[in-house]
Amino acid sequence: MHFEHADQRGPSSLPEPEMSASAIARSTAESLLVEARGLSKRYQRGPLAVDQLDLDIKRGEVYGFLGPNGAGKTTTIRMLLGLIRPTAGTATVLGAPPGNARGLARVGSMVEAPAFYGNLSGRDNLRFCARLCGLPDQRVDEVLDEVGLTSRGRHHYTAYSTGMKQRLGVAAALLKNPDLLILDEPANGLDPQGIVDMRELVRRLGQGQRTVLLCSHLLSEVEHVCDRIGVLRGGHKIAEGTLEDLRGAGGLLVRAHPEADVRADLVRLVGEKAVSERDGAFHLAVDPARAGEIATALAQAGCVVTELRAEQRSLEDVFLELTEEER
Amino acid sequence: MSPIIGCFRGEWLLARKSRSTWVLGVVLIVLILVLIYGAVALELSVLLKRGSIAATPANIATIKGALSPSQFLRSTLAAFTGVGYGNAIAIILGVLVFGGDYSSSTLKMVFTQGPSRWAILAGKALAIALILLVYAIAAIAAGAGASAVTGAAYGLPPDWPGIGDIIKAGLTAWLLMGLWAAGGAMLVTLFRQTALAVGVGIVYSIGIEGLLLNILRALEKVSSLSDVERVFPGANGAALADSFGPKAGTALVSPIQATVVVIAYLAVFLAITFIVTQRRDVT
Q: If interface means Cβ-Cβ distance under 8 Å, which residues of chain B face chain A?
């Protein structure tokens, strides 16, 4: 389903002014694999699951979709794959309307838990998918090898462990050697080693020209793998950027005493808004390069500094901060 | 390769590997042998041995007729009319092929592979058509085999129908099973539940339509409702099957009209299945 307006592109994707209209369209279609404007979905007798979502995913990047349960991640993915129709908004995937056979032919996906036919072996399940896509059985063996399931390919799907089912789901998504890979919670239900293996697999798959949209509520998964991250909450995109963008410039951590004097001096030096206190330490939202200046000032004021170091906010801190309202 | 052919190949793989396809086919053949030929042969031998009051020459001739090679087409097609279990088997097959993805939650996986929903459904329809063609050929072959045995056992003349009639009867069995399989496909698409679709489909084909027809026939005595009977799918299917037997001239509708009505129902059932699936959100 293409939702007719495809002309509302963000400034970052605007081509050079002298380009012709067709060249503009081609260039944008080639650089932006996923483009959505004002995408919204309200389920029947349900809440607004996704509200006015704009999304641009560029060729070759690994884009992480982060958000708490019920944030609208899976609903967005379903809309992009044409499984459900949006209530409002427009979207194109690989230049085609979502769910269009032309676009789907170049998209591999795994939405939520993988689901296959229990009466077939893993290999036969992939043969079924390959036939639907018009691919030879030889491709099945290649992807089984790629996800490390060759030796278990002939076993019934029902006999697979959760990790093997997830890997089979990824194998099915890879069958078409897709330009765009959409993985929704690929580490769901995996043990710690399985999570690490899946993370490595996703990282490997995202190398080169392949674009990956990774949807997860596991922060470490997104943090280690993604080039760019979008954070959803209550159906809205509340933040987007690289990991560094989201973390911000960082700050300083100071442990010193007497605490009352230290606080007063820090407020004088960097301003009240930039000083917060937790876990027995002061956290300063300032450029870490000011560490020397602050250490000197505290020493001159007679304070004893026991620890002073630059600190980087983790994605978890950012995520908790961004999603705090909901909690 | 056309997407529909690719989808058909995928569905055919699924059907070949599915136990239900084989089990339903075997059940159909066993029931034809047991409930049509076995039961009638048993009835005849009881009548002949005990010499009961029902053992009139006319009765015996009728029963022998049902077992004879000359009437094997009508006898076999009885499996696909009225309370015939062939209808039920076709409904179950339609429900399983079109609705198996609802119970196994594989619909998302199937619809994101690449082909359009139309192509996927067309592939399923072609796969069912091929399975039912195999069932129809097997049913006619089983009926022929059974009537050859019973005919020889009771010394009935080997007056086999012409090859043209045999082919027409095979196509009739195929069409009638296609009708009920399409009905099953529509029901499971509407209900999204295999158990409910099978239940409603079988109850309708075996019970409800017969009940409605009886009520209509009773009402005919006070008002003219005979035209209403002519639009029921089961009644037209029965008329089509009857056209191969001795009562061909007394059928409710002509074979041509019955064929048109059955094809119309089949087309409507499939159209509803395709349209609803095309428009449906897959969550």
A: 1, 3, 6-7, 9-10, 13-14, 17-19, 100, 104-106, 108-116, 119-120, 123, 281-283
